[in-house]
Amino acid sequence: MSEPERPQGEREMTGDLTAEYAAHGFSGELGFGSAPAVVAVDIAMAYLDESSPLYAGVEDAVASAARVIAAAREAGVPVLHTRVRYQPGGADGGVFRRKVPSLWVFDEGCALGEPAPS
Question: What is the pTM of this model?
Fold first, then answer.
């Protein structure tokens, strides 16, 4: 079976991701800013409570994150936490919420959706 034709202007991937990014204009760098912050992404009880359908056994990773968060607070660096939150019943969850029914743990009011203590 032959390979399908590429659209005009599309190049073959070389396998070198860094080179591919550069060739497509994604090689710019911003460097570090002047105001650091720590962003803790979705460190929720849903991944830590063994009764949760999303339990992930990531206690060691969360303990490491807690040390980073504590050091940031001690140094006066802002700490921002993200969280997943759906309306009760997941009306605002779209297709992904329907695809993964266990995401009910992130419905407003469910304790499993709350951030882990840090």
Answer: 0.68
